[in-house]
Amino acid sequence: MSSPLLQFATCADERQARTVLFGANTQGAGFSESARGKSGEPRSLFSADFVREADNESPSLTESLADGASVFDAGNLALHGLPVEAQMARARARFLEVFQRGQRAVALGGDHLLKYAAFSAVSAAFEDCGIVYLDAHPDCALEERLFFGSILHHAWQLPHVRPDRTSLLALRQVNAREREGLRHWKPGIVHALEFCERGLPAVLESLVAQLGPVRRVFVSVDLDGLAPHEVPAVEAPYPGGPTLREILVVLRALAERYELVGMDISEFIPEVDPVKLTALAAARLAKEFALLPPPRNQR
Ligand SMILES: [Mn+2]
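Above are the sequence and the manganese (II) ion SMILES. Below is the predicted complex in structure-token form.
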């Protein structure tokens, strides 16, 4: 079965594109016990194709009326059936290739393995890249096993991915093991309540302070970071997150200041997205991010 491409992405030549989109259905980081994922079986529909199909059925420009002429859809990486190490090596190499050409990468996952692959490529390509980690959870348990709950513990051991250049955005569900990880690594944190308590300008101020003196930023999105009334079809939904609108405003503001090198969008479960609300939210996020301009000082 051939995969659909995102019709919004009308650039025909990858090398000419400003943003390269690809699907990377990594599987092997495990599933949360708390919500919908008690099975250890790989999910059959952990797929970027569903996002593309939903957007193709209900197409749109970005909100600022931009089209996707600068966006190339490279299809999906061939990861099916590969061992975890090979999946991550292939995803890492794809990110690295896009980074090294000076283009922006947008990867539709996939589970949390995709994040480690992305961070590993970030660390190899850039010495000055901050991480914005949109997630209800901190994923920083101090465990040697690489799984969804320990991704950042491992990422922060990479040479150029640092907790003091990372901001955990919209954090609101933390277990005791992860609290130990937070106390050990001391990353920047923007708690979910800060969006209403302090407002978006203050959230942005915190992000800038937490990212420190970086020129570039990679944005890692676990869709459960967003409010589940808009983005319900995720592995571990948890109420009280920021809206898609708020996150798009944050991203627009980050683009003014930083070179946004890439984004991964992970943990989407098509099986529980009957009206395709989550798919459309993921597509919106990908398209708006793909078209964000370079920072002010590079225009
Ligand atoms: Mn999460």
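The pocket of manganese (II) ion is lined by residues 135-137, 222, 224, 236 (CB under 6 Å).
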